[in-house]
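Dear Dr. V.,

Thank you for agreeing to look over these. As mentioned in my earlier message, I'm a first-year student in the group and I'm still getting used to reading structure tokens, so any feedback on how I've presented them would be very welcome. I ran two proteins. I've put each sequence directly above its structure. The first is here:
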Amino acid sequence: MGISRDLFCAQRVEALSTMGAMEEELSLSGCAYLAGGEVYYRVSPNVEEMARFVLDAPFAERWATPIQPFTTRQLLLTGEEDSVLADLKRAAARALAEAFPPAFFDLITAATATPPASAAWPIIAGLIDAYDGRFLADECQLLARLLGQCITARQIDAAHAKVARDWLNQTRQQMTQDSVVLEQHQRTFYGFLYQGGDGTWQVKSNQSLDKVLAAQRTLETGGTLCGPILEKTFYYSDARTLPTLRSRFADWLTALSGDVLARALPLLASAPSPLSTSWQAQATAQLPHLPAASQTALRHLAQLWHTPL
């Protein structure tokens, strides 16, 4: 007579529970980042928080790597969850150090030591002029995310980036953030516009920020023109409206940023590289000797810097 798998699992769970132990899956995500000339490692059980940290990195003058997942499955005795999680965090930090060694960050340091270009400033300045006095949160978000994209691509210098950040801070301080929400439920979407193979602008979206970040990196590494990642929260009271939210997000994203990006991204793509050919030669020589994660991250940045490897 065969033994039911469900019965076996139930008996195992009951036995473990009696012993004060349970088998659990622990998941973390993390990244390495360069800030102030030092390398740091950040690990969190909250992938959404980690994705937000990476997305906001340009505004804090951080150079963050792609997010790396870490998962383990093991028996946990009652009361030892915190110590096991701490051990996993230390192991994740060691794995990040191996995936992104000093040689990787030496190349990033050398690249960021070169003064950035200023090709993006006319675009950013034009948006500031167009948006000034309108106090619209969606327009501020578009400007902020496009500015972050230009900082990462090294197409705007520090002085002009500060002017734009100051304008954003002053504008947001004058805006009323309070709103009355009558609906009971909400869904937040993240997404960006990208230029398809036929030249038309298309939407990539998801409710998980980390998945949108990964999709944008993949497309950018392949040379596809991509806009900044934007987000929008929709409130609703009737679940029957859920199927329409994704299309509503696509319509909102296209209306807000389509015309702006159709003008801005080709101009930024045609701007000269802010880096020297010597950096490109050095990176090309070192690339095969780096771990796979470092190679992927470096190829992505090099593509943004117009020095493909």
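The second protein is here, in the same arrangement:
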Amino acid sequence: MEMALTIPPQELQFSKIIVPEEGVKEMDWQTVLAEQFLNNNGTERICDLYETPDTDNSDSRVTFFIYVTSGSLFGREYSLC
């Protein structure tokens, strides 16, 4: 997945990007994997894999993998636009 950010990267809480699954304990719900921050065009890395860039720039992107088998993605604060 790729998300365009409107907040500084430090404010993004990956623990809020989840896949709630009925019948599965919340602690076992899927969350992001291999997050990578990119410039606003999505063409260059702005930090190393799994790291958060040292910038207050709210005009960047982040990519990550997430495994979804059922349920809805982004069950808490974030949503797809």
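From my reading of the second output: The radius of gyration is 13 Å. The first strand starts at residue 2 and ends at 4. Does that match how you would interpret it?

Kind regards,
E.
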